[in-house]
Amino acid sequence: xxxxxxxxxxxxHAAQPGPTVDWQPDPPAGTPLxxxxxxxxxxxxxxxxxDPAAGATASVGAAHESPxxxxxxxHRPPGYPSAxxxxxxxxxxxxxxxxxxxxxxxxxxxxxxxxxxxxxxxLGLYGLVAGGTQSDEAVPALLRDAPLVGPLLxxxxxxxxxxxxGFAGFALGALVGFLAILVLPWRSAFDEPANxxxxxxxxxxxxxxxxxxxxxxxxxxxPWLLGVSGARQLSRRExxxxxxxxxxxxxxxxLPGEPRLLIEDDPVLANARAYARHVVVSTAVLDCTDEEIAxxxxxxxxxxxxGDEVTSAFIRGVGLPLVLVHALPAWLxxxxxxxxxxxxxxxxxxxxxxxxxxxxxxxxxRDVRAAEYRADAGAVLAGHREGMRSMLERRRxxxxxxxxxxxxxxxxxxxxxxxxxxxxxxxxxxxxERAATARGLDELFGGTTTTAVxxxxxxxxxxxLVLVSCLGGGLTTAQxxxxxxxxxxxxxxxxxxxxxxxxALDQLTPDVRAALGDTGQLxxxxxxxxxxxxxxxxxxxxxxxxxxxxxxVAYTLAGQKLTAELPLRRDDSAVLGLFHRWHIDAAxxxxxxxxxxxxxxVNGVPAPTGAEETGVAVPLLPGAYTVAGESNxxxxxxxxxxxxxPGQQSVSxxxxxxxxxxxxxxxxxxxxRSYLDGCAAQAVATPQGCPFRYYTGGSTVxxxxxxxxxxxTIELTLTGPATARVSTSYEAQGSAQATGSTVGYFGTTPFxxxxxxxxxxxxxVVDGTLTFQPGDD
Length: 777
Prior knowledge:
Structural class: alpha+beta
Number of helices: 24
Low-confidence stretches: 1-71, 447-454
Strand order of the largest sheet: 1-4-5-3-2
Number of domains: 5
Shape: elongated
Largest sheet: 5 strands, mixed
Number of strands: 25
Helix content: 40-55%
Strand content: 15-25%
Radius of gyration: 51 Å
Mean pLDDT: 77
């Protein structure tokens, strides 16, 4: 079974008697360990009565039964000042295994293998066809015409062009397909290099968090998992045989405590395995000698003390998605061991199997084999060299040949012959060289640092974690406070409340601002004192879809509580390479005003002029605006208030109608009378530009005088804010009397004639004064 299997299972070589353990990492920085209490008899545990080991055994048992030992988190191994140090020591030990699991899982290596194969096959097929059909064009004309060389090259290309093209196409397609899966998730980093850092940081944090949660969960659930896998409590007879041996071995290794010992029913395979909190042996171990059992337990105690299972769990947690997928084919091949089954399983799961075999396992198995050597050395330092030798000799008899990759790169255990060879290395005799043995145990468990929490390495790790946490917390706080969609909406309405037109416009997307053109006039309308912004603004909800969002806003305008929806868009560019701002993606509402020469004003700001036929469009931000027309001596225009709600596209209600001033009628009549008086002052029969005349009938007028006997009543009709049409109805016409004499054939004849007339023309404002200009309508 592969090491990445999340469930506790025997080793694939469990049929070979001997100590086994999965995923052994390097030992952590340890704590001072007392030397073993004394020698033990080669055949079994130390006997009471003067033997120092007996006292050590008793002290170990007392320590194991003490309440303090039971209070330790998850019954962790002794020598670690806290559970944090224990977990940290296991987590940071095997960086190669963690790196391999991280790269293989979080960079989608199985998917990259699939893309590589399909890309290679596609381009390989194309290269095969193209190389076989277009080989004539592959040789340049200069070489093709060369004697001997040309025919030789043509023959080579004609007969091997397809093969070469196929191989080249497959290699290129495989490379492109593999790199495509690795590069595509980082395509945003091409525009913003900071995305590469943030993406990697996010992946590392996610992988570390998953690995940590998985490790803690495995440690806490270990009793239940072992119970499900078949481990049970020892019976009275089994405990009487094994517990004294375990206590003696713990004492010889300088451990002030020991793990919980469980057993599984397997009368054939003599096997043992160390977990984070337990050591599990098989019932077949009971058939071994005490010396062999003591060597086996010493071996497993070293694994337990150095926290190898913690490292194993953390690496499995980092690669948990890959581990879970790999568990299915591993179980199928283990449950149904047949070549046909293996072939079908490989056909469906080959990317995962190859990733595990050639990426993940090689990165970790080197440390696993080193842990086995370390555990063997611990058994020797405990005084059980011969028992260890006996177990390894028995294991060697079951070994068969394996492939070079499995044996040299992926093997969980070194070859038994090499382990036996290391047993022959000289070590201190625990019965006579206690100080040297203590130093050896001290080196085995990683040094004599009693303050592992305060060690430089621990301080660096803790400092880095604190720095990352503070940085992450600060970035998260900044993101929450300044770079959420709610923040953009809040800044938008806050700028409107402050009459800050430029700042409000800055909250719009660049595309919207570009479409507005010159925004100075719009900003001045918001800055004016007559502008009334929405009040009591609150964001009641935000629906986000990727880089787009819709915010629901509640507000008060003109005394009414209203709601509106505002679309938002997140910027492609990032502030400081980390934060993406949100902007309002709604264009200002459009107010259509009448065109003409006399411009209107919005909040006192002159509106742009336009053609009288089409009018002019004025953009407005949310709020209340006062639209007013021109006022002069002739007319006045009552202002109107226009309300613009957020998200509105067009605004109506600004149809302004000028009205005639009451005093304009009297002023117009005075102007008309002055005009008529000027006409009457002309002593001619036909006053120039006047509404009345005397018809002579062909006679010569010798002397004539005009007198206005009744002034006409005029009517004014506004044709614009500064012009009005002047007219006279038939009933309101005036009259003028002409007196004088005519000279004819019969002499001079006096006359008196009354003429009725009406007045028409245009009354306009010139330099603030009403001026009448006679003329037709």
